[in-house]
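Take just one protein record:
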Amino acid sequence: MNVMVVDDEPVVRRTMQRLLRRRGLGDCVLCSSGQEAMERLKDARMNVVLLDLLMPGMDGLAVLEQAKPKYPYTEFIVITALDDVDQAVKAVRLGAYDYLVKPVDQQRLLLTIERAFERLSMRAGLDGAMTADAPEAFAHVLTVSARMREQLSYASVLARTCRPVLISGPSGTGKELVARGVHAAGPRAEGPFVAVNVAAVPEHLFESQFFGHCKGAFTGAVSDSPGLFRQAHGGVLFLDEVGELPLHLQPKLLRALESRTVTPVGGDSEIPVDVCIVSATNGDLDKACVEGRFRLDLLYRLRCGHIVLPPLRAREGDIPLLARHYLEKACAELGRAPLELSPEALARLNAYDFPGNVRELAHLMHTAALRAEGPQVQADEVLPDPAPADPLARRMCSLRENEAQHVAYVLRAVAGDRRQAADILGVSLRQMQRKAAALQEDPRWVEFLGDI
């Protein structure tokens, strides 16, 4: 990433330079005036320019007005000591990416730079995808949604770079499927694809699981183990639920990513590893960084490219497509004749929010294949009737009540199967059992859930 700092105050320029270096953003170009910035922009292409607004001679707005039309693929972040709404509006109209007021919070500044770079990467990826072939590596991701296809096109471009990719989206949206597509679309397609659920790795086994161990390193280490990084050598290591990695373990992962080496537990030498990292999260890692739950420097390492998967309800046209696909698959697995969805069943599916996204739809179709009595699946065999008197009728409610509604609806849809409900909702079986027990003790839900 190439960053330019334009400010007439030497102390500000030096402070910015140190901050950017500490965060691994490399050396930045320092300019003390608007005129100097215009000259330097002719010689070097900048990704991001941090532009002071109030400078003698050519001020920041003048730089922005002249530079943005000439360098449309450079993002300008305006920084000023005056909180002036009119100036902010003018700067944005002239093409500024964002407007920050001094003294600037360092974390906010770094996140703004990262988002500006993401915007550039997305634009470049989509421009390249306009002339590229359809992403065949993602053919297993069924979709007719323009929004989803846009993300897959961007993913196919990112795959060719071998840079770390972060995939974010709600539980059940198909993040691992997309990760496998990134593997298949890239130059490491012939190498291994190693997936790990970070949240499922016990803290005391983290180093052993990821970096390997030597025989005799600890009780039970009866032989050498290569660890996940070495297993993925020459291929892709997929870190699912990376946001769940405990804070005190994050520096260990960061060091392996930066040094491209691992040291097995019980070993005394570093072993080089060559892996492409693809991560996934269903949370907001920017917010986690602000709250101190996730390291910003680790996020920079993981998010050179960012793929955002929309929830199923936002994928226009995909619910009927996926419903028919999973119903056909369920019938084949159960050894029964193919079934069709009635118009009423499709209408009810289209009206449903799908808190569990594609994973929930797949489970509903499997249950429907089990319950269907005729050649056509009826609406009540897919989802319970959301009658107005139903406690799940849409209404304004607290987040706690909204969660209870979703959990109750899923439990009833899977006939009380706790494990299946846990899979749909993306929680552990133990968490699901606690949620179900709480609902069964609440008189508002007893009749709705019945004996399940």
Remarks:
- The chain has three domains: 3-125, 135-310, 313-449.
